[in-house]
Design goal:
The structure is a homotetramer. Chain A is built from eight helices and 18 strands. Chain A is an alpha+beta fold. The first copy, chain A, has one domain (about 5-365): Chorismate synthase AroC (Chorismate synthase, AroC fold, 4-Layer Sandwich), CATH 3.60.150.10. A five-stranded antiparallel β-sheet of chain A has the order 1-2-3-7-4, covered by helices on one side. Chain A has a five-stranded antiparallel β-sheet with strand order 9-8-10-16-11. Chain A has a two-stranded antiparallel sheet with strand order 5-6. In chain A, strand 12 (about 265) and strand 13 (about 270-275) form a beta hairpin. The two termini of chain A are about 35 Å apart. Chains in contact: A-B, A-C, A-D, B-C, B-D, C-D. At the A-B interface, strand 1, helix 2, helix 5, strand 11 and helix 6 of A face strand 1, helix 2, helix 5, strand 11 and helix 6 of B.
Amino acid sequence: MSGSIMGKNFSIATWGESHGKGLGVVIDGCPAGIPLSEEDIQKDLDRRRPGQSPFSTPRKESDKIEILSGVFEGRTTGTPISLILYNTNQRPYDYSEISKIYRPGHADYTYDQKYGFRDYRGGGRSSGRETAARVAAGAVAKKILKELGVQITAYTLSIGDVEIDRSRFDHDEIYRNFLAMPDKEAAVRAEALLHKRKEAEDSAGGVVECLIEGLPSGVGEPVFEKLDAVLARAIVSIGAVKGFEVGSGFAASKMPGSYNNDEFRYDEEDRLHKLTNHAGGITGGISEGFPIVFRAAFKPTSSIHAKQKTVDKEGNNVEIQIEGRHDPIIVPRAVIVVEAMTAITLVDYLFQRILSRMDLIKKALT
Amino acid sequence: MSGSIMGKNFSIATWGESHGKGLGVVIDGCPAGIPLSEEDIQKDLDRRRPGQSPFSTPRKESDKIEILSGVFEGRTTGTPISLILYNTNQRPYDYSEISKIYRPGHADYTYDQKYGFRDYRGGGRSSGRETAARVAAGAVAKKILKELGVQITAYTLSIGDVEIDRSRFDHDEIYRNFLAMPDKEAAVRAEALLHKRKEAEDSAGGVVECLIEGLPSGVGEPVFEKLDAVLARAIVSIGAVKGFEVGSGFAASKMPGSYNNDEFRYDEEDRLHKLTNHAGGITGGISEGFPIVFRAAFKPTSSIHAKQKTVDKEGNNVEIQIEGRHDPIIVPRAVIVVEAMTAITLVDYLFQRILSRMDLIKKALT
Amino acid sequence: MSGSIMGKNFSIATWGESHGKGLGVVIDGCPAGIPLSEEDIQKDLDRRRPGQSPFSTPRKESDKIEILSGVFEGRTTGTPISLILYNTNQRPYDYSEISKIYRPGHADYTYDQKYGFRDYRGGGRSSGRETAARVAAGAVAKKILKELGVQITAYTLSIGDVEIDRSRFDHDEIYRNFLAMPDKEAAVRAEALLHKRKEAEDSAGGVVECLIEGLPSGVGEPVFEKLDAVLARAIVSIGAVKGFEVGSGFAASKMPGSYNNDEFRYDEEDRLHKLTNHAGGITGGISEGFPIVFRAAFKPTSSIHAKQKTVDKEGNNVEIQIEGRHDPIIVPRAVIVVEAMTAITLVDYLFQRILSRMDLIKKALT
Amino acid sequence: MSGSIMGKNFSIATWGESHGKGLGVVIDGCPAGIPLSEEDIQKDLDRRRPGQSPFSTPRKESDKIEILSGVFEGRTTGTPISLILYNTNQRPYDYSEISKIYRPGHADYTYDQKYGFRDYRGGGRSSGRETAARVAAGAVAKKILKELGVQITAYTLSIGDVEIDRSRFDHDEIYRNFLAMPDKEAAVRAEALLHKRKEAEDSAGGVVECLIEGLPSGVGEPVFEKLDAVLARAIVSIGAVKGFEVGSGFAASKMPGSYNNDEFRYDEEDRLHKLTNHAGGITGGISEGFPIVFRAAFKPTSSIHAKQKTVDKEGNNVEIQIEGRHDPIIVPRAVIVVEAMTAITLVDYLFQRILSRMDLIKKALT
């Protein structure tokens, strides 16, 4: 394994380059008996697809998913599910510049250092297009979670310095505006910011927040596989993510303990509550059974039209101006990727949760 | 594996509870031929030991490390290294309260939910004492890194709202003040803050920054095992960590791409430089060969003397006042834990770096 | 992972059913810089292809391999290599009987028990056709081994009770006769046996022997990953294999130690020799640097035309007569599968061999 | 991981050298709630202990097990169980010869080749004493299996050329004679053989057979983790094992398919039966729910008193006569090791069996 396989019991192996023949994922460990169709997966892929807003590249990726194995008579068989997306839009590119020059913010330089050479066509394996395979696998994971009553909702919390106002939080708005922001007013201001950046041939970043509801308590393992730790790995592994925090996150470092600790109470109907949720739903690395909240910080898109200083492979100082049509912001399209990585991670640790207690094991096996 | 084993080629398996017989770690995958003594490990453990400052518990943990296997005639043999720390300070405790009541901010509730019951003595496996085994393993990892010219330096960046002034950064100061802050003035102000919190029977959190120097380019794997992703997992797995960021981190989400992208230049002596380091030394998940910088946010210590609302196992609303002597801040003692987790992670991916190119493999094997 | 992923550093994930859309394999961990073409892989697949002898099914599987990713400008890039074989010969079958009746010797019953239902078309995932993906991955592994001077040669040692005479061992004969036997005379007698079994609507098994040459000493890990142990797993995982032995194998259990121990000697040119090779080239689970020899026992083909007693899904005792054209022997076609599984395993442990010594690690990295 | 860690969900990490401070094992993944005491483990260790028969070394290993973690109030807590055996019998040895000369049949030469040097005291990590840690972990695995109704029974099938007569199979006899043979008459003849070998300063090997009863159907994964494949790995990883076979094993290679296929029948009470068990209880790598039978071939003990030719580290041809008291046969003491490795493997795949079907997962989690 060199980084393209993840998961212990629910495992995925992804492959493919941006401008190669296609990309895909093999899922090994999907239990038998789950209804699964190409539509179930296409739905999530469509949320990631570019060309749907003025801020995403008008490049056309058809991204039509095909199930190659592991499903029989509409249900998963328990054996590997192979999913494929062919790259259809292979018009001839001119790679002469990009093949020799290291674009700032991109992995061109580090791939050359690591491997001795690289597939420079459209970023090759380091392209954001790689996340399409994650979304496809995530859609399968979500089908499993649905059977277990778990719901994941990610959305844009901020773009540049425009943040949503939580008092105006509107769940439906996430799917209504181009920016996946649950606050219409903030979305309008963020659009204005993006138009300015676009004019300046520049780009913007933002923060995605993710909410997990319905997850039972007891998910996550002590020490190295704390639920927040494995979520951190999953989320920071998304290309442009530079930060991760759960619950109060970095702000917690400034709070006194008396404020940050979440107090427990039973209500009149004897249901357990926490008076606050600074922990974000995880203590000691294990889910509490209350909603989980975490955030991911995305850097601004690296591909910008503005002229930049850089070097080429031959050791010269040069300048580069990246051609083509690129998203001034990738955050709205990344929302579904955050959901996918969360779903893939949760399934694995939900499975493991069963194995932590002999009574649950017996219940399943006898 | 249920969370106490980590690492692929350099693997560690930790065990032990706070108030049990002891704790330890088995390292499988330490190459043969490295000089290793108990002193090498003890040195790091001593940096974690409590009772060394007015802000760490006067509890006495002797934490004397013993090497049980894997070292012969002063050198590692390539077979598992077993390290043990006996718990010597086992005076009789009164666990009657703690066994029944869920302490806010602690894992008491989630462990009971996950496992059906728990070793409540001193937090059992969820105690911060668990990190001693990580520090021991980290000391071995550091020996390997030293042979490869890699240096890790972690320090306290902030405590509560007191942050260091980077213009006053003084490396030696890290080892001089109680708080591991590389800025004497900030340390004085942070001490004042801590005294106030202590008087108020309250606690504080903070941020640890970590600097990696000398790491070659090409370390880290694409997609799911990006170097920042695996560091995120390693760091967020430390008990009180609630956030992780690399390079500009969350701040990057507000920057324009033209500012956040690091431009490359060759200097007069034809050495490659980056004009900035917003990426924190990692692009596309792979080390650039430039210094790596990341930060971890620690929540305030959960154990406080102030009275708190909570519930007990039997379903009653109660109040708790945690007795005993607890650190009002754990950040300074966590600095060495951050270094340890970083070292353990780097060794694994440095090893893997060899396997990414056929020319390096041939060089080693022929 | 549910069994279709193997390997730690050189990992493969296979997928696909016998009569589904196709099958394939994703290789994660192939080092960058190795020349690789579809022809390299096709060559090995052609050795497995049916329809080449009177004893293999005239069923036509075109088995044309396609490389979908991980190769750029004729060389491996270090990122996942996705290989696909489309199932082209999808003429309409009548599955009405096979879908309800459990064929003796097949996995029909156990798949239904495990998963609740099964893809019954041609055996689904449990079909021998699954090994095509192994052969494809094995061809890639062999390219790596070639660069390191390692050579694997498997051949048929016996069919039914017809065994080769080692004094007539002829390497070239392996590729000359239908049965891959390195002894022409034995091959003729085995053919006669097979004709008789075929007439009787019956089938035969046999033993494959495998020779590894050029493998350096020091490959294999102590305790659970002894080289013979991981080879055993790899080989017994091939569908019809019922036994594995290395060196003298089961015969060693009857020998006195004084006979079974291999004595060491330096010859006149100061080269180290063993006077015998009862160990089969592995001691303590680690390769000696001398040729490695192991054997795999294959059961007779389960699909026979003769009438057999069995049961159906509804709980009735029935009789079955399996239609279609089936190999009376699969051993000759399995020879290349044994080579493939050996190659895949060796690459992983050759890589790991580097990581067992600090001097080799330093040599590679500095 | 360099070979001393095994298992996915039920994982064990072993450590320790023959003449070091001790040896032990860390178990990560034992579910919470299982009653476990040191006696449970000691019982199995006592079956492995030397000095109990005229054919095992009178060397005294007290092998008193100590539980260091993971058990609280008599039950497993779900966190790592650390088990330790101190080496108490550390009388001064003379290692001058063994440190320089490579003993035939031992791993002295391969360890030096792999690691550059070795802990030569009593074989270091390659000593058979390493299996004590496996037996300890196996005892814990058996406790889990017991809760699930699974029973493992291993015994000596043959010693040298003396094999039991199956018509005289007597289960109780296994625990009655020194050789763990379920046939008293065979045991007497085997004893005679061993006396002769001992007088000749020579040694003997044998075959251990293992019977698994009560294992439900559906255990084992398709393709690379077939139940027989993972058992093969587990069993061949035991030091002296040179061969593994399941069901009819190597004999199956000679049988016609019509004979080797096991036919199914419902009996009058509508219970499913197989008319034969040539498959050994596993088809397609998945347990049938019928008894599983496999065999392991052990080579004769490598340590013999007779003079042998060999070489030393400096490149000289020499002769060696191994001093000390060694077992002329290790097979009877290996019987419990076979049981242990089987138990450890079964637990892991029984756990995984739950995760193969959505209905079982739901049953456990809701």
